[in-house]
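Batch manifest line 512
LIGAND: 8-OXO-2'-deoxyguanosine-5'-triphosphate
JOB: complex structure
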Amino acid sequence: MSQVPVKKRSRCPQHATPPPVHLEDPVRFPDTVLCLVEKRMGASRRAFLTSLARRRGFCVEGADSKRVTHVVSEGNSGDEVMEWMKRKGSCWMDALGSGPALLDLSWFTESMSAGQPVEIEPRHRLGVTIRKEEPEGRRQVAAYICQRRTPLAHCNQALTVALETMAEEARFCSSEGRSLAFSRAASVLKSLPWAVRRVQELSALPCIGEHSKKIIQEVLEDGTSAEVESIKQSERYQTMELFTQIFGVGVKTASRWYREGLRTLADLKAQHTKLSREQQAGLQHFEDLQIPVVRSEAEAIGQVVQKAVEQFLPGASVTLTGGFRRGKQSGHDVDLLITHPEEGQEVGLLRKVISWLDSQGLLLYHSSQRNTFYALEEQEMLDSSTSTMDRFERSFSIFRLDYLSGGIQRGAGSQEPGSIMSGFGATRSWKAVRLDLVVTPYSQFSFALLGWTGSKNFERDLRRFCKQEKKMALNSHALYHMEQKIFLAAASEEEIFQHLGLEYIPPEERNA
Ligand code: 8DG
Ligand code: CA
Ligand code: CA
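JOB STATUS: finished
ARTIFACT:
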């Protein structure tokens, strides 16, 4: 089973960035910007060559930099370099030869010896295959998100931000279909290894409807979309955005409050609006919960939970999922998945863990749900495969993250030493962080891992693909073949993709 322990985190795409520049190395050749390909070269040799080049006055940047003019590789073919660069977030490579020169290390060593960039000769260049089916060096884009690779860094940020604002506005109006259409269009653009520059390029892409096209055109032509800007300025959008950011508040509640004339958090407090326990906690810790949680904080919380879990069930594992598993460096909360290799041992564990965390003063709020998924039955699958909610034993809580208790690097909004700014400039040594804990039986772990890793768009389309293309039902518990009427077991995420006949997409490429 492919469990990812809390301590061993997957690498983030920003690994393409070389070591920091030292000010004592002045740039002598500003028009030559190198990128060294780590593949086959290895990280330490790359760091060594980077320092060497910088000492000689060369500029060296990461694969995601648009300034790169010379890509230098050792032992890779041109096609391999192209593939590597794309994976590292490079947006401007194409098979037609525009973009930087792809070069063998021989060009680099000769340039270092010469103390300046030497002329590029044909023998320095790496050959690239131009594929017939890719007339503009561009691949066909698959219709389902789960058939595509969507890295964290992509080339169409301004367009996707605009489309996602449209999607959110539609969601605030409870227009789920419209919201989905904009989200899907944004997801397609996130998966493109090139930047869209002309509206004509959209015609070959799936899921870009007329309205999305109009928004994209506006942004391409004017830098912004008048429609999006007017939405962002509207009182309703701003209020809905504010209210739905409160923990425990959904679109329905936010809409009702808006209709009742409420506009601000102060209004909510002053009007003595009837709030659930969850919403009260959300309002009380609103400022803290607005501050993004960084990876070091998520890992620190993971370790506290691991310690708690081990007290009651030695051998149980705690896995960091959600956006952090997809390589994000920050997120709105921490998602932890707990399991034990001996099926059944995990029953009742969450209650004990929560009680212990609470007794240590580490929980500012918690609400738990018992496992209501008792058996793998057809009806259970058919009912739950369309919803992202699952039936595991789980807890949605607010964790009290104490900076003074052991080497935690602080995230944004924090102040030295060991304290964060709270309202009115006061400081304190802790911060409230949203924490989701989920306990899963071992045999369902891979499904839960897949389900809780996200992104939400990726998960939604994966379930849609299962149903529409494979006549299967997938949720965070199991995969069910509706025609054959059998459950398909899987000991890893890879096996689930195999069952579905899909190429495996690693978590870092599920950022749709
Ligand atoms: P962020 O926190 O970094 O901002 O983003 P995220 O980690 O991608 O989002 P999230 O809201 O924490 O959700 C993480 C994944 O968990 C997402 O793909 C959807 C999934 N998820 C829930 N609730 C439930 C649920 O009840 N059941 C299942 N199976 N998945 C859920 O958010
Ligand atoms: Ca999360
Ligand atoms: Ca979550």
